[in-house]
């Protein structure tokens, strides 16, 4: 007997050129397709649904599906395929015939975690992927039934309880300010004045919570956004450097290598090699 209620089969990142299509087909397993970028006309059985960036579809077994991408832009997807191994979970998910809706960032992170586990295949990678998938299914079921969202985390946007205490409040407000203004020039002294804290006090409280300085946090936020743009858009590295708040491409290259250990170009090439690579579990 399978140890989990779910069985991971496959995960992949796909890029479709402008105007390309995914031919109508059906299979005996479930599938989730997250639309990273683009606009498509998605067919599910006898129904058609217009989907845009950030939409997610849940596909049941034996239902024919496919899509046509619009000519204006390329289409980028993150897909997972799986089986359900319990009648309880199957009955629960039967209420989701086709889900075409924007999903919270937590689900996107969990999909990326599944891809990561399959790519690196460290000890217990199947178990970790299955746990992420189970959480996705419960979250999708909640969302399809109109459940309310929880309070958003100050770090990942995930569902958590509200933060408590002055120390966390200072750190949270500082991090939130950075996330909203990362593309602008950020100086700690200016941030402290705008947020309403003493510069030294703000720095001390921030480091106690995050374990690193505000300046390091700014670097991490900017590099994280840069990686997202490199993975999910077609804009150039020079444009990305400007978009995420670096003075020029040379400054961007230097900081990126400090944080990631490789250049932006090398990182993007590794990401490209992972596209259309079927990760099997």
CATH architecture grouping of the largest domain:
Sandwich
Following the backbone from N to C, one meets helices and strands in this order, namely: EEEEEEEEHEHHEEHHHHHHHE
Task: Kindly report the CATH topology of the largest domain.
Answer: Jelly Rolls
- Helix tally equals 10
* Strand order in the largest sheet: 9-6-3-8-1-12
Oligomeric grouping of the chains: single chain
Largest sheet: 6 strands, antiparallel
Tell me the span between the first and last alpha carbons. Answer: 17 Å
Strand content: 15-25%
Q: Which radius of gyration do the C-alpha atoms yield?
A: 21 Å
* CATH level-4 homologous superfamily of the largest domain: Regulatory protein AraC
Q: Which regions contain 5 or more consecutive residues with pLDDT less than 50?
A: 150-164
Instruction: Please give the number of β-strands.
Output: 12
Shape: globular
Range of helix content: 40-55%
Which class best fits the helix and strand makeup? alpha+beta
Mean pLDDT: 86
Number of domains: 2
CATH class value of the largest domain: Mainly Beta
């Amino acid at each position: 007997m399978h140890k989990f209620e779910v069985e991971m089969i496959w995960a992949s990142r796909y890029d479709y050129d402008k105007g390309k299509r995914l031919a109508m087909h059906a299979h005996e397993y479930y599938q989730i397709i997250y639309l990273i970028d683009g606009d498509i006309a998605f067919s599910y059985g006898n129904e058609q649904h217009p989907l845009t960036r950030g939409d997610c579809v849940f596909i049941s077994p034996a239902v024919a599906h496919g899509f046509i991408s619009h000519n204006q832009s390329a289409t980028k997807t993150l897909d997972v395929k799986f089986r359900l191994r319990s009648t309880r979970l199957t009955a629960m998910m039967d209420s989701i015939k086709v889900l075409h809706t924007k999903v919270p960032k937590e689900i996107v992170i969990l999909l990326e975690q599944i891809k990561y586990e399959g790519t690196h295949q460290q000890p217990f990678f199947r178990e970790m992927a299955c746990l992420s998938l189970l959480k996705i299914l419960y979250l999708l079921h909640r969302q399809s039934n109109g459940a309310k969202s929880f309070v958003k985390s100050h770090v990942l946007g995930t569902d958590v309880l509200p933060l408590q205490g002055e120390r966390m409040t200072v750190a949270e407000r500082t991090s939130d300010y950075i996330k909203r203004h990362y593309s602008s020039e950020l100086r700690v002294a200016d941030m402290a004045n705008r947020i309403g804290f003493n510069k030294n006090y703000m720095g001390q409280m921030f480091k106690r919570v995050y374990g690193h300085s505000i300046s390091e946090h700014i670097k991490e936020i900017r590099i994280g956004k840069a990686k997202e743009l490199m993975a999910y858009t077609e804009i150039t590295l020079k444009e990305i450097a400007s978009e995420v708040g670096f003075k020029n491409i040379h400054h961007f290259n230097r900081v990126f290598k400090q944080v990631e250990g490789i250049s932006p170009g090398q990182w993007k090439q590794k990401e490209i090699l992972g596209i259309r690579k079927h990760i099997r579990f």
